[in-house]
Structures are given as C-alpha cells and as structure tokens.
Amino acid sequence: MSSLLQELKEGGIIRDFLPASDLSFQDIVEGIDFFIVYIDSTRYRICPLSVTGRRWLEEHKLRHPEIPVIDIEENDTAASVKSKIMEAINHR
C-alpha cells in the first residue's frame, strides 16, 4: 500500500502520506491506517484512510463512519487500488 501511495505522491496526485503507527490510538481506536495529504483548490487537506479486506468492510464502515475505508483483495491491480484511494479522497 505504501508503494502505491508513494507512486501517487511522485505523480503529483497527492502531496504526501503518513502511515498511522501500529497499535497507536489512531490505529486501534479510530481505525486509521494512513493520513493522506492533498491539495484541494488552494488549501492542504488531510484525509484519514482505513484499509481492510472485503470481509471486514461493512464492519469498519459501521464502527468509523467518518473515516473513508477501502477494501483491497488479492486480485486487485495497482490501478484499481489507486482508483479506490482517489475515490475515497474525492468523497471527503
């Protein structure tokens, strides 16, 4: 996942990203895996993002409705995961 976010950063699509620390408050309580920094018009914005498998998607959405969540499966391509990331950011 970090490599795909790095590609989005290098491509100028996002400004930066920061993974939440393992077992941190953001990881355990808030369900956040990454913070994505992007520019909306002329301001920097931060989008928290949760990443999970399809099996846990609905549970994550119920527990943390304010946090965008994407599901990643084994057969997802890099392009499809990048698309899911961008969709999560755009719906913020």
Structure overview:
With 92 residues, this protein is of the alpha+beta class. The chain has one domain (2-90). Helices cover 36% and strands 26% of the residues. Strands 1-2-3-4 form a 4-stranded mixed beta sheet. The chain starts with a helix and ends with a helix.
Structure characteristics:
92 residues; 36% helix; alpha+beta
Number of strands: 4
| Portion of residues within helices | 25-40%
N/C terminus separation: 20 Å
Estimated structural class: alpha+beta
Query: Looking at the structure, what is the overall shape?
Result: globular
In sequence order, what are the helices and strands, one letter per element?
Answer: HEHEEHEH
Low-confidence stretches: none
Average the pLDDT over all residues and give the rounded result: 91
Query: Which band does the percent of strand residues land in?
Result: 25-35%
Indicate how many domains the architecture comprises.
1
Strand order of the largest sheet: 1-2-3-4
Rg (CA only): 13 Å
Q: How many helices?
A: 4
* Sheet of most strands: 4 strands, mixed
Topology overview:
Elements: H1 2-10, E1 16-19, H2 25-28, E2 34-40, E3 43-52, H3 57-63, E4 69-71, H4 78-90
In short:
The protein contains 4 helices and 4 strands, in the order αβαββαβα. By secondary structure, the chain is an alpha+beta fold.
